[in-house]
Every structure is written in structure tokens, then in C-alpha cells.
């Protein structure tokens, strides 16, 4: 066997990380053919596709993007790449009109003199560049939001009007010095609350409506509400633009938005005169959501030779678990009536097989952050969407008429990118397959999908994997799901294993490509990805079962999976490594204290929740602490989300890893982000200091990064340090 010192050599680790970071991931597919080709021939197959890829360039330390053209080859019955990749630089956002005749890009560059970002809207049509608009020429205080988790960039059907998410920056230059000759800014130090993790510079958002022909702009704005996710819908008057959007309450104060599908929000709408644009802001009105505490997201409008006035969107009850099952709703703007297409109360069935094993049924409620940008079939009879399932992320179609659901099963885990004239473009991947682009024409009976790009270079031949279900000891008729991986040569041999519970806790590991797992495989390590009870992908009852039980049932689930892996999948009981981030970090540090008898080899925790009772006062989502530790399932007003007495604070502490630190003996590596607003790093430092004081081997690395520690240079350093930390203990335990 290869010597451990060679396997974990720094140069080899650097080479491995670079190799996998440069593997391109498809992110966007554009249909190049004119709409007229589809309209004139119902059997027309897309002839040309532009696929956008991105990779993490470790030398330039940035995410780079490029496009490749694939053309249909009739003789071989496949799509073939034409020409060389074309780099796409400086493009922050882009959109193509529904008629396919115009594409608009947002490009940014830094002003070398002022170090400020300059933004330009660049418009292309079939003939080339139409025009470039300096965003400051529209409004000197306008800043288009480029954050990929919150931005929007939407063209109307003919590409003449653009909707985007924007902020108005206060550029008033008031003095803060005691000088009596200048106007003093008395409010310069007043606390200003952002939208939290990853949105730390976003305070209040408006919708910018831009007339691209006349280079004019007006804002849709509402005091006390941040507007986002804009869209066009049908207008009965050709001189009027009908615009909808989602709005999040800002008062009395904000709660973090990212990774949270439980925030109170509303569906808004507004009518705007096309010509001439007014000079004042337009205030939208609430169309839906003000009669209950709801969380609404991902509005989509059916389009066929014009917009419809019926909107579909995902809806959840506000409050409670931060990710949960969603309802698929169908809203009529004219009548203001709502109809549920798929309910969030669907319970996934447990199927007992003849061989004594069990499985979950294919169909359940929707677990998804959003709908595809085009989710309707051409006739409007079906809506296509993605959803987490017990082991996968799958694509589905629901029939509007009878609400029947069918699965589009063409890869282990899938994501629909676009739907154009019933041609479905999607991305599929697996544990041992990098993402591939698939294309197929939707069929009510059997949608057949074909791989577009090169499959041969996307398969990871050295990885074996499988899945299993275990009954939970805490809950009747509920099962833990897990995915194991192993280097092929180690499948039937005893070997070291990395146990990885996900964060959230209401999140989910799917059988999809994960770079971290591929890298562990290269290091000769088995892994096990654990979906404990409380994970998404099953049903709402399964999610809510964990509320109030963190630190107990999830820890037991994790322990049961570890023991199962030792018994059934050749995990070496003396070389078990724990690795988790956020709530996953909460679990690995918790189990290391609660079960010291397991003699874990090492524990790696990334921005872990160490003490829920401390975190409640410093996180951007204080409601999380009450929900998870105290079992609050319903929506609570902001004045009631904090612990109300010593007993509740004690419960929070008792469920936390810090309560068990006196029993910890496993060497522990902590990876912390100084800019983390979700799980701020001071409790992690406290945990590190206490371990050091007790003489337990520990390291703590602190980075200038946020909760996910995903900056390229940070992720690189984390990988190197984690690998060397693991090597130290595997090496000495293998002598």
C-alpha cells in the first residue's frame, strides 16, 4: 500500500485540490435556435446549445466562467462540441428575452482611482452590440445587487424592459467632526441592520425597472419592506407594464435570510405606465399573504405568445424549522384566489419489502429552494420542478388538472435548468459522476433524456458507493438514511472512515457530486454522509420530529450509523474521524463529549454551534435557537423568540457540546470564520481554549470568511490542514 507520508505530501495535496477545483461544472444552458423554428415544426429538435461552465481557478484565486457550443449531429444522433471554449469575463448577471432575440449583461469593474465598483448594462441582439448603459447615468445613487444568492435580472418578452434588484446608496457627505462650519451628521453611528449572513451589506432592496431603449429607470419601492424576485405578468392594457415581486418585512427588525425558507413575506404587484416613465417611485400593493404568517418564494408566470395572469410559487408556513416542506400554489391575479397544486402535508410512505428491507415511496412533498426559471410545458398543463427525496434530488412534473405527479428519472440526482417548447434541459450527477447536461422532450408517458456533453471525462472510476436506511431508536416508523463511499480497492477491506453529518439541521445529503468526498477518496478514506431524523427530503412530520430534541436524538442517530458502518461496511473502529460544519459541527463535537468510549481518532468542526444559549444573543437567526432547543413549531412574533427564563436558557446549554466538554478526549481541529454572522466564532474559540486548558490536543484556524468557509484560498487551506490533521493520527494508528 502507498506510504501514508507520500499520500499526504503537501505537494500532492496541492495538486489534488487544484485538479478537482479546475473540473468544470455546467451552470447555465442557452437555446440558440430561433423560436420560429420551434413554432413552425412541432418535431423540431434544438440544433445548437450554448453551455456555460464555471471552475475555481486556484492560481488567479477566482471563479472563472466559459461557454461551449454544442451542435446536433444527425448522423451520430449526438451533440458535438464545436470550436474552442470562449471565456466569459466580468459578467455578473445576464438575461435573454423570451423571444430569444436579445441578451443583456451586467458587467462590473473597479475604478482604479476611487476603488469603487462601476456597473454597466451591455445589450446585444442578433446584429451585435446595441448599446451600453452606465448604471450611474440612470441614477447616481443606484447600485444593482450582484450577490448571486439575492440578485435578479429579468427581461420582458421583447427585451425592451429590464427588472433587477437594487439598493439606493446614501452619498450625503455630512461631517462628523466638531467643526461648526459644516453640517453635523448626528446619525452617523446609528446601528443599521443588514439581512445577515452573506447579505451583510444589503439593508433595503428595491426593484429597478429600466427602459433599455430610452435609458431611463424608475424604482418600485415600499417603506419597511425589502422587495425581491421580480417578474412580469399579463397586462390588459398595452400601455401598462404589470410587475410582481416578493417582499420581506424589515420591521421591527430583520432575521437572516439565506438558507431560511421560513421568513414572513408577501406577494406584491404594481402597474407602471410604459411611456412616459414617471419621475417618482412606484409603491406596489400586497396581492397575497397579508392574512396569515406565510413565507412565499420563487414566483413564476406561464408564457405562451404573451404573459398569463396566473402565478405559481412555493409557499411555507412562516416560523418553525428554517427549511421545511413547501406548498405549490396557483394564484389568479384577477380574482385574487389561491389553489393548492401540491400540499406540504403529504406524508411519504414507508414500503416494507419481501426481503425484510424498507424504502420510502418516490412521491412526497416538495423540498426545494426554488422553481426552475421556466417551469411550464408549452401548453401550460404541467409544471416541472425539483425536490429532495430520501437519497436524491429528483425532477418531477405535476399535472395542473388533477395534481398527479410523475418523476423524470434520468440520473441519480437532477436539476432542471430550463424548459423551452417542451424541451427540458437539466443537470444530472452522482457521487462518482461530475455534473452532466441532459436534454429531452417532455412526454406525459416517458420523457427520455440524452447526455449533451462528454460523459467519459465526467466519471470518477475509483469511487464505490451505496445507501442504507436504519430505524431510528427515538421515533416509531422513522428511518435514518445514509450514503457510504469507499475507494474501490477498499470496499471489502477495513479502513479509516470520515463520518459527515450535514448542517442545518434541516438540510439533506443527496447522491450527488461532492468535491470534498472525491478528495477524501483520493486520500484512501471511506466516508459516510448522514441524514438523521430532522433532515429534509422525507416529509414535514419527519422535519419537525427533531425540534426540541437536538443534542439527543440526532446524536443517537449519528452513533447508530457509525456502529452500522463498523459492522457492515468495514469501517475501522479504531480509525473513525468526525467531520461536520454548523449543526454538523454541533453533532460531531457533541458526540465526542457524550460518547468518549468510542475513542474517535479525530474531530474536525467547521463553524460549529458550541453553545445554543450563547449563540441566541449573537446570531443573525436567534429564532433558530428557540425552535431547535425548545421545540417551537409555530410562528412567533419577534418579541417572543428569545428564551424567557433561566430554565429555557439551561435547556439550551444542556443540549450543547459545551455541556459535555469535560469528557472530550479526541484531538479536535476547529475551522472558524471571523465574518460568520450565522454561527459567530467566539464560542468556538472558547471551546478551543477549554480543550487546551484540559490538555486535549487541539488546533484552531481562524479565517477572514463567512459561515461556509468557501473562499477559494480559505477552502484550499482548510483542505490542506484537515488532510494533515487526519494524516497525523492515521499514520500513528497504522504502525
UniProtKB/TrEMBL annotation:
<keyword id="KW-0963">Cytoplasm</keyword>
<dbReference type="Pfam" id="PF19283">
    <property type="entry name" value="APEH_N"/>
</dbReference>
<comment type="similarity">
    <text>Belongs to the peptidase S9C family.</text>
</comment>
<feature type="domain" description="Acylamino-acid-releasing enzyme N-terminal">
    <location>
        <begin position="189"/>
        <end position="451"/>
    </location>
</feature>
<comment type="subunit">
    <text>Homotetramer.</text>
</comment>
<protein>
    <recommendedName>
        <fullName>acylaminoacyl-peptidase</fullName>
        <ecNumber>3.4.19.1</ecNumber>
    </recommendedName>
</protein>
<dbReference type="InterPro" id="IPR001375">
    <property type="entry name" value="Peptidase_S9_cat"/>
</dbReference>
<keyword id="KW-0378">Hydrolase</keyword>
<dbReference type="InterPro" id="IPR045550">
    <property type="entry name" value="AARE_N"/>
</dbReference>
<dbReference type="GO" id="GO:0004252">
    <property type="term" value="F:serine-type endopeptidase activity"/>
</dbReference>
<dbReference type="GO" id="GO:0006508">
    <property type="term" value="P:proteolysis"/>
</dbReference>
<dbReference type="InterPro" id="IPR029058">
    <property type="entry name" value="AB_hydrolase_fold"/>
</dbReference>
<feature type="domain" description="Peptidase S9 prolyl oligopeptidase catalytic">
    <location>
        <begin position="517"/>
        <end position="710"/>
    </location>
</feature>
<dbReference type="Pfam" id="PF00326">
    <property type="entry name" value="Peptidase_S9"/>
</dbReference>
Amino acid at each position: 500500500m502507498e506510504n501514508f507520508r507520500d499520500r499526504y505530501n503537501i505537494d500532492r495535496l496541492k495538486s489534488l485540490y487544484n485538479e478537482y477545483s479546475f473540473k468544470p461544472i455546467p451552470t447555465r444552458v442557452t437555446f440558440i435556435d430561433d423560436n420560429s423554428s420551434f413554432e413552425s415544426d412541432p418535431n423540431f429538435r434544438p440544433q445548437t446549445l450554448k453551455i456555460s461552465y464555471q471552475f475555481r481557478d486556484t492560481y488567479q484565486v477566482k471563479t472563472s466562467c466559459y461557454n461551449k457550443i454544442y451542435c446536433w449531429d444527425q448522423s451520430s444522433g449526438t451533440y458535438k462540441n464545436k470550436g474552442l471554449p470562449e471565456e466569459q469575463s466580468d459578467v455578473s448577471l445576464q438575461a435573454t428575452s423570451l423571444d430569444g432575440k436579445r441578451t443583456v449583461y451586467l458587467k462590473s469593474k473597479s475604478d482604479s482611482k476611487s476603488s469603487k465598483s462601476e456597473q454597466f448594462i451591455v445589450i446585444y441582439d442578433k446584429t451585435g452590440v446595441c448599446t451600453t448603459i452606465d448604471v450611474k447615468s440612470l441614477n447616481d445613487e443606484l447600485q444593482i445587487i450582484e450577490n448571486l444568492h439575492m440578485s435578479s435580472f429579468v427581461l420582458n418578452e421583447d427585451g425592451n424592459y429590464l427588472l433587477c434588484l437594487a439598493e439606493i446608496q446614501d452619498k450625503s457627505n455630512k461631517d462628523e467632526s466638531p467643526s461648526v462650519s459644516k453640517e453635523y451628521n448626528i446619525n452617523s453611528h446609528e446601528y443599521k441592520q443588514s439581512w445577515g449572513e452573506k447579505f451583510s451589506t444589503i439593508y433595503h432592496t428595491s426593484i429597478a425597472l429600466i427602459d433599455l431603449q430610452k435609458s431611463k429607470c424608475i424604482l418600485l419601492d415600499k417603506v419597511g419592506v425589502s422587495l425581491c424576485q421580480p417578474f412580469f405578468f399579463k397586462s390588459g392594457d398595452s400601455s401598462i407594464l404589470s410587475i410582481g415581486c416578493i417582499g420581506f418585512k424589515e420591521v421591527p427588525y430583520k432575521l437572516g435570510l439565506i438558507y431560511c425558507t421560513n421568513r414572513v413575506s408577501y406577494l406584491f404587484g404594481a402597474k407602471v405606465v410604459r411611456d412616459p416613465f414617471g419621475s417618482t417611485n412606484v409603491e406596489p400593493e400586497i396581492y397575497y399573504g397579508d392574512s396569515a404568517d406565510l413565507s412565499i418564494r420563487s414566483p413564476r408566470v406561464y408564457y405562451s405568445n404573451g404573459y398569463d395572469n396566473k402565478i405559481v410559487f412555493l409557499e411555507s408556513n412562516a416560523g418553525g424549522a428554517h427549511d421545511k416542506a413547501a406548498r405549490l400554489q396557483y394564484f389568479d391575479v384577477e380574482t385574487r384566489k389561491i389553489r393548492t397544486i401540491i400540499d406540504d402535508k403529504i406524508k411519504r410512505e414507508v414500503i416494507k419489502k419481501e426481503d425484510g428491507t424498507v424504502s420510502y415511496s418516490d412521491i412526497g412533498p416538495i423540498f426545494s429552494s426554488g422553481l426552475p426559471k421556466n417551469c411550464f410545458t408549452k401548453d401550460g398543463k404541467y409544471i416541472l420542478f425539483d425536490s429532495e427525496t430520501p437519497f436524491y434530488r429528483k425532477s418531477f412534473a405535476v399535472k395542473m388538472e388533477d395534481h398527479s405527479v410523475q418523476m423524470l428519472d434520468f440520473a441519480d440526482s437532477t436539476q432542471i435548468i430550463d424548459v423551452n417548447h417542451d424541451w427540458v434541459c437539466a443537470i444530472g450527477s452522482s457521487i462518482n459522476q461530475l455534473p452532466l447536461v441532459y436534454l429531452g422532450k417532455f412526454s406525459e408517458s416517458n420523457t427520455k433524456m440524452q447526455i449533451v456533453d462528454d460523459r467519459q471525462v465526467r466519471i470518477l472510476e475509483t469511487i464505490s458507493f451505496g445507501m442504507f436506511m436504519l430505524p431510528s431508536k427515538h421515533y416509531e416508523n422513522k428511518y435514518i438514511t445514509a450514503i457510504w463511499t469507499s475507494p474501490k480497492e477498499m470496499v471489502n477491506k477495513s479502513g479509516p472512515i470520515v463520518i459527515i453529518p450535514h448542517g442545518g439541521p434541516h438540510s439533506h445529503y443527496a447522491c450527488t457530486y461532492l468535491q470534498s468526498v472525491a478528495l477524501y477518496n483520493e486520500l484512501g478514506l471511506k466516508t459516510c454522509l448522514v441524514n438523521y431524523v430532522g433532515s429534509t427530503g422525507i416529509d414535514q412530520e419527519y422535519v419537525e420530529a427533531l425540534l426540541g430534541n437536538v443534542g439527543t436524538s440526532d446524536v443517537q442517530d449519528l452513533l447508530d450509523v457509525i456502529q452500522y458502518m463498523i459492522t457492515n461496511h468495514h469501517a475501522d473502529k479504531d480509525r473513525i474521524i468526525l467531520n461536520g460544519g454548523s449543526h454538523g459541527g454541533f453533532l460531531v463535537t457533541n458526540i465526542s463529549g457524550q460518547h468518549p468510549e468510542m475513542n474517535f481518532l479525530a474531530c474536525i468542526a467547521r463553524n460549529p454551534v458550541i453553545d445554543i444559549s450563547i449563540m441566541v444573543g449573537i446570531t443573525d437567526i436567534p429564532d433558530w435557537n428557540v425552535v431547535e432547543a425548545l421545540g417551537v413549531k409555530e410562528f412567533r412574533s419577534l418579541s417572543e423568540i428569545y428564551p424567557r427564563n433561566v430554565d429555557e436558557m439551561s435547556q439550551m446549554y444542556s443540549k450543547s457540546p459545551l455541556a459535555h466538554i469535560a469528557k472530550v478526549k479526541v484531538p479536535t481541529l476547529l475551522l472558524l470564520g471571523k465574518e460568520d454572522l450565522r454561527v459567530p466564532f467566539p464560542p468556538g474559540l472558547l471551546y478551543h481554549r477549554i480543550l487546551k486548558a484540559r490538555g486535549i490536543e487541539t488546533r484552531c484556524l481562524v479565517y477572514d470568511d463567512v459561515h461556509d468557509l468557501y473562499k477559494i484560498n480559505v477552502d484550499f487551506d482548510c483542505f490542506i490542514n484537515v488532510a494533515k490533521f487526519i494524516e497525523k493520527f492515521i499514520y500513528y494508528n497504522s504502525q
